[in-house]
């Protein structure tokens, strides 16, 4: 029997999940899929291997889609805070990528909502892809977002 596989969401663990969700709503036009949630119980303890785990959060529909995929932004009742910054060449998931009409417009909007520019805005013509403009931005909690525009 074939197993159907479908990508549905990624999770960002946040120090302040509401603030981070508002950043993605205001800057990248994400929208809530449903209301805020809180999960706890034995099932969550067993799933996460944490004792007395509790998760608050919300799922946001990514721009360009009707009903998903989504980004889930959560905080645990007891969140272990990151001890180092995320950098582009760090093993693991390092960035979310959004294609936009204007890289500079989104950069300025992100800066106005507490984001920070990470690296320079670059423009390059790439074989088979056309003109590529991109910048890395850190959201208010330090996660890296790559904002790109391709023009053939």
From TrEMBL:
InterPro entries assigned to the protein according to its UniProt record, in alphabetical order: Glyas_Bleomycin-R_OHBP_Dase, VOC_core
Gene3D superfamilies assigned to the protein according to its UniProt record, in alphabetical order: 2,3-Dihydroxybiphenyl 1,2-Dioxygenase, domain 1
Residue intervals of the VOC domain: 6-150
Protein name as annotated: Glyoxalase-like domain containing protein
């Amino acid at each position: 029997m074939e197993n159907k596989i479908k990508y549905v969401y990624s999770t960002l663990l946040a120090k302040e999940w509401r603030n981070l969700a508002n950043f993605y709503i205001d800057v990248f036009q994400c929208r809530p899929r449903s209301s805020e949630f809180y999960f706890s119980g034995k099932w969550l303890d067993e799933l996460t291997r944490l004792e007395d785990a509790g998760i608050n959060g919300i799922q946001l529909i990514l721009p360009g889609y009707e009903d998903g995929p989504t980004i889930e932004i959560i905080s645990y009742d007891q969140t272990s805070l990151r001890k180092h910054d995320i950098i582009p060449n760090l093993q693991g998931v390092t960035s979310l990528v959004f294609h936009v009409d204007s890289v500079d417009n989104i950069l300025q909007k992100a800066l106005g909502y507490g984001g920070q520019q990470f690296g320079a805005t670059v423009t390059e013509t790439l074989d088979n892809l056309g003109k590529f403009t991109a910048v890395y931005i850190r959201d208010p909690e330090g996660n890296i977002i790559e904002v790109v525009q391709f023009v053939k």
